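We emphasize that the prediction below concerns an isolated chain of 75 residues; any contacts that depend on oligomerization or on bound cofactors are therefore not represented. The input was used exactly as deposited, without trimming of termini.
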Amino acid sequence: MLRMAIDQQGSAFGMWNELLAAFGLMLVLEGILPFLNPRAARQSLLRITQLDDRLLRLIGLGSMALGLMVLYFLR
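Result of the prediction step, given as a token string:
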């Protein structure tokens, strides 16, 4: 019983560790464009503000779906 509790806590720690690692990787990837080319990053953000809400939602949905597929095939 005690061993099962320890294993479950270890799994939870491992999950949080991987989640934080993924978050850190996301921050690194998100920071590449502004670091290398701040002007292009600013122009991209200005273009995004001009998109229609429906199109922006569709882009977000597509991004989430692609991310889920990548996770599914990697795991």
